[in-house]
Design a protein that fits this description.
Three copies of one chain form a homotrimer.
Chain A (H helix, E strand, L loop, with lengths): L4 E6 L7 H12 L4 E6 L7 H11 L8 E5 L10 E6 L3 E5 L5 H4 L4 E7 L14 H14 L4 H4 E3 L12 E4 L2 E9 L5 E6 H8 L6 E6 L2 E4 L13 E5 L4 E6 L4 H5 L6 E8 L2 H7 L1
């Protein structure tokens, strides 16, 4: 049997030793654990950013992966540590919405408020529950301890509503930028399947996108199809509309940030659709 | 048996391939090794910063962990490679003080000057002893080679005195900032146990802290207890006094850096203590 | 038998979850894989930088290592995914020159254009072939699938000529800066063996180097041999001439960047050589 995998997502950065200390604590409980770092560069205490990053990464991990998510501005206060179990995965995190994208999907078996001190470090600091609460919990869960061993189910966990696109008129949609990646690509919350539900799944005709003052005509099949240094629109690897600049940085070029509105307009229906109605 | 763990701490950064090359060399000697990165973002050649980071992280690793610490401004010159063995751990590093926090604790079994060329790479470069000396040493030590196999004990290894707080008057202590973390928290060298040794272990009465021109009244139990964007004082996860800004960045707000003096004052003894003396 | 190693080199950065998603996909195919990160901080889409970093790191990995190299500005377009097999290693990458330093060496067994969809993810996105093509390929190759299982050999793969030094006159060579490391060291393409081929292998006499307006006299044996804050010249751990500043940052001090010309001059032959001719 392969040894168990813990995937980590935090805002701890890579300079400070916080992540390594969590790993050391976990290896003290389960010496066979293996770790995959999703990211530790979530902007400090940005719960929403972590929720977005988690939502697009966890489905690619093999079943039984344990996700340890620590973005925890409320550390030491009243917020609860929770364990979420789905058909495939286990998630350990503070109850502050950071698991929002997991909890809003089907397949959540239960949400447990972890209270059993046997699965925490003996002495719990005021400032680093990643080390004292969440890492030990994840390690014990990897050893066969079950979610129900660590506490009782709750229903009133914190929900985090991720923004959704809306239809402004028959041929006009509005969503927003939810993430800027390293390349400056602007990832929106407008999914291919959302558009297909409104405009059909194949040919959407002439498409125009707008973000800030930049207007983009046409949908690209790949980045290099667009002229160099020109903004383009593509369905990205997450099935979401993404604004890019071929060979450049769309975030810098357009000035858009997380939350910037993005409009997608259908200038005319597809030729085939038009001919059907003529 | 679980495979052996090497924990790495360097100033090599994450862009250059130096760390990966060390790992490749170690896997060539012991293919089963597993690696935990403590940090590679120590400021270039800042021995003292590495010593602080090591001191607060190594105790959380399981016994038998081998620590490979390479911050090595004197590479290629006369400084010696050393192996330090304690009851629980093995440390491999240049003899330049970077292991200062380990060497000043009880429990050091011996400090070995590594000289046996069989445990180095065959050809040793002038600029990268991480690859040619320290990584191979760590890998061979993970294979059952003992510290005494690689050289002879020395006593004249380089000491690094970490700064200590002092008592200025009965109710006034002075220490300094020893580390700024990613969140801008200012970690001082004033420990809870040091204060308890002077003022008793339970109630210290009204406390005031000062760093640069910022004055903080009261000791917090958790970050969010302090009003937003306001500096607070807390005993952190390392048992040290830490100045933070709830939801903000204390280093930026106060202008303090490593070495900035921090004063802790007892404005009045605790009510109980006062009543006893009245 | 130890589990197989995949070494990753990309321009994906460490903030976005791209690298973790590739690892998740690979673990879904081969749960025993272990990963070593060479670097993910290659400047976005800088193929040449990745080729240099790969060339100086791959030879230090143990045989059977699989290298997964994804710097892929042409993702989604016509560029081909390739698998390169040498006597010791397997490389998986886009056919855009990023494997240039591998392909120009002896020992390449074959270059395969990977076309067999059974070894890709079922649905291939337009923007993330790291996840959908290259990671699954690497994972399947780690499971015993052979390079010839995934496609047919090609000869017309993209070559990348790395710059070479040249001799301007008997005692004068010119090369260029090919890499600036974290410490600001300027690594050139002028190797010790190239110089030895021209001027003999032992004593080169008085050497002068010039980069931008900085002139350096003499060749150092180790960094600290040069006066502090002064530029020096050394044969580095890759056997290449490197310009450094002892305790400082040569890139900042000299203003040199990748591509800056570097001259190496022999001011006079070695004393021994001179006496032989006198």
């Amino acid at each position: 049997m392969s040894s168990q995998i813990v995937a980590l997502l935090t805002d701890f950065g890579s300079r400070d030793p916080f992540v390594a200390v969590m790993k050391g604590v976990m290896l003290g409980i389960n010496p066979d654990l293996r770790f995959i770092d999703i990211s530790h560069e979530i902007a400090p205490q940005r719960i929403r950013e972590a929720a977005v990053v988690l939502s697009v990464s966890f489905p690619y991990f093999p079943p039984q992966t344990i996700f340890l998510v620590v973005v925890d501005p409320g550390v030491g206060g009243g917020r609860r540590p929770i364990v979420v179990e789905t058909a495939e995965y286990i998630f350990v995190a503070p109850d502050n919405g950071v698991l929002g994208s997991v909890l809003s999907r089907a397949g959540v078996r239960h949400v447990i408020h972890a209270t059993e001190p046997a699965y925490f470090r003996q002495s719990i600091s005021r400032t680093f529950h990643g080390r004292d609460v969440f890492a030990p919990l994840a390690a014990w869960l990897s050893c066969g301890v079950t979610a129900s061993d660590v506490g009782a189910p709750i229903e009133d966990y914190v929900r985090l509503e991720l923004s959704r696109p809306r239809q402004l008129s028959e041929n006009l949609l509005e969503g927003e930028v939810i993430y800027r990646d390293r390349f400056g690509n602007l990832i929106t919350n407008i999914s291919e399947s959302y558009i297909a539900g409104l405009w059909g799944s194949s040919d959407w005709g002439r498409i125009r996108a707008q973000v800030e003052t930049s207007v983009i005509d046409g949908l690209d099949s790949y980045y290099a199809q667009r002229a160099p240094d020109t903004p383009g629109l593509i369905i990205n690897s997450w099935g979401l509309c993404e604004i890019f600049v071929n060979g450049g940085n769309a975030a810098q070029e357009t000035g858009a940030v997380e939350g910037s509105p993005v409009k997608i307009q259908r200038l005319q229906a597809s030729p085939r659709a038009v001919s059907e109605h003529d």
